Amino acid sequence: MERTMQEITAAYSVQEQWAEMPMAEYIAGYRDFGRVRGYCRECSRYGNCWACPPYDFDETALPEGYAAISLLATVITPSEGVTLTPETADPIIRRERERLDRMLLKMEREAAVPAHTAMAFFAGTCLLCPPEHCTRREGRPCHHPESIRPSLEALGFDVARTTSGLFGIDLQWDSPDTPPAYLTLLSALACSGHSRF
Ligand code: SF4
């Protein structure tokens, strides 16, 4: 049964934490390109979504073009009486991704002052079209190229190591027996200057 926006809003609360560091430090401590890319290759969206690898640019060189990265951990905790199942979690994740992606694109625009560039990284794959309708499957151009961004994991960064090492948050994985107690979304903004502020 489809949930109303009010029901989705009442089903969870959100806590956010930011961490900032030089990009070179983040690359040295948290990128494990070969291993993480191996996980991407096992995903059905690999090569089937324009936001996902493989890319037509050098994704190992891309982060090195930025001086600093601001990482945002968003922890979603279900309200009392709500169990996180695919049915309850999917609309919550979609709603939070829409909010976060909008916010990050705005920050990206505002950070891109003269002589500086900025790039947002979203917390996962593209959610703008149903996966089976992504135009990459037919080799046609993306419907919304201005609104898609890669995720950190798509560029080889270890999300679990990032959330535990920088935020003290252990990722919880979905399992048939034990639903997760919370969900964590990791997004970021890279800047050619030193800070997002
Ligand atoms: S906006 Fe649509 S066409 Fe573009 S990457 Fe996302 S799903 Fe694919």
Structural class by SSE content? alpha+beta
Neighbour order of strands in the largest sheet: 1-2-4-3
- Runs with pLDDT <50, length 5+? none
End-to-end C-alpha gap: 42 Å
SS element count, helices: 5
The general outline is globular
How many strands in all? 4
In helices, the fraction of residues equals 25-40%
Largest β-sheet summary: 4 strands, antiparallel
- How would you spell out the order of helices and strands? HEHHEHEHE
> Any idea how many domains?
1
Averaged pLDDT = 93
SS strand fraction:
15-25%
Bound molecules: iron/sulfur cluster
Question: Can you walk me through this structure?
Answer:
It is a single chain. Strands 1-2-4-3 form a four-stranded antiparallel beta sheet, with helices on both faces. The mean pLDDT is 93. It is an alpha+beta fold. It has one domain (5-191). The chain is globular. It has helices at residues 5-10, 23-30, 33-41, 86-111, 159-167, and strands spanning 12-22, 68-78, 118-121, 183-191. The longest helix has 26 residues, at 86-111. The protein is built from five helices and four strands, in the order H-E-H-H-E-H-E-H-E. Iron/sulfur cluster binds at residues 49-51, 126, 128-129, 134-136, 142-144, 148.
Keyword list:
197 residues, alpha+beta, 4-stranded antiparallel sheet, 5 helices, binds iron/sulfur cluster
Topology of helices and strands:
Layout: H1 5-10, E1 12-22, H2 23-30, H3 33-41, E2 68-78, H4 86-111, E3 118-121, H5 159-167, E4 183-191
Antiparallel strand pairs: 1-2, 2-4, 3-4
The structure holds iron/sulfur cluster.
Iron/sulfur cluster is lined by residues 49-51, 126, 128-129, 134-136, 142-144, 148.
